Amino acid sequence: MALSRCVKLNDGHLMPVLGLGTLVSEGVPKSKAGEATRVAIEVGYRHIDAAYVYENEEEVGSALREKIADGTVKREELFYTTKLWATFFRPELVRPALERSLKKLRLDYVDLFIIHVPITMKPGEELLPKDASGKVIFDTVDLRDTWAALEKCKDAGLTKSIGYKPVCNQVECHPYLNQSKLLEFCKSKDIVLVAYSALGSQRNSKWVEESNPYLLEDPVLNAIAKKHNRSPAQVALRYQLQRGVVVLAKSFNEQRIKENFQVFDFELPPEDMKTIDGLNQNLRYFKLLFAVDHPYYPYSEEY
């Protein structure tokens, strides 16, 4: 890993500042996640962001192992994140959940294991357990107990890093939701802010409202991109890197995967950074409205 393209976490491990997201859109075959991972590693990505709930860790793991086997990359050069899904928050379920991901990946360890959403749900095989009326069934677990179980996973060598003392906080972050206050807080505590949905959001009807605006069609973003002879996506990613944010870019298109990686050879001047700051609307694509009544619902507070 090129040190200039990494950030040092507060536990001493290095995290590449640009990663590939692997969530597959509705109707897209899981194999696309594997193909995108192969292309990304060939292009130079060393940070792969995944999750149990994406249901494609076998495909992603296969791609990782293939690129290790053919000599493109060494395992220690890769940074792989997976996430603990909300149905596995009871302390006794945490390690088995991670071991299940490792088995699918056929890896000995992951680099980062984080809590996916802070909303506890009924344990079981269903990803979104619902009652007869279609409401999600929640569970009552103290997240501090979940946390202690994550610490044991780290002690056992199954993951190099965990979210707390948070080495990082992965949140939705893009020019329409720039999280400036949260970013300031994280920096003050030596916590790295990791941005998902950094390019806006795909239209996944299960999670995102169809009526939301398309970030990459924003005229201001497009004008800045044109000025620098770059794509709006490259400008949105570069904006985050200059703020000290680690950024995840999800694409299953080979050309765009390559394009999104080309963000290290230009810089946005202060006036452009300020203009992009001005696009903030506190617009959240992923609102998790099904969980608004949950005591741990995260978006009721100012941060």
Automatic annotation (TrEMBL):
This is Aldo-keto reductase family 1 member A1. It catalyses: hydroxyacetone + NADP(+) = methylglyoxal + NADPH + H(+); L-gulono-1,4-lactone + NADP(+) = D-glucurono-3,6-lactone + NADPH + H(+); L-gulonate + NADP(+) = aldehydo-D-glucuronate + NADPH + H(+); S-nitrosoglutathione + NADPH + H(+) = S-(hydroxysulfenamide)glutathione + NADP(+). It comes from the Eukaryota. SUPFAM superfamilies: NAD(P)-linked oxidoreductase (SSF51430). The keyword NADP applies. Gene3D superfamilies: NADP-dependent oxidoreductase domain. Keywords: NADP, Oxidoreductase. It is an enzyme of class 1 (oxidoreductase). Its EC number is 1.1.1.19, 1.1.1.2, 1.1.1.20, 1.1.1.372. Residues 18-280 form the NADP-dependent oxidoreductase domain. It comes from Sus scrofa (Pig). InterPro entries: AKR (IPR020471), AKR1C (IPR044482), Aldo/ket_reductase_CS (IPR018170), NAD(P)_OxRdtase_dom_sf (IPR036812), NADP_OxRdtase_dom (IPR023210). The active site is at Y54 (proton donor). Belongs to the aldo/keto reductase family. One of its GO terms (biological process) is D-glucuronate catabolic process. The record marks K83 as: Lowers pKa of active site Tyr. One of its GO terms (molecular function) is L-glucuronate reductase activity. Substrate binds at H116.
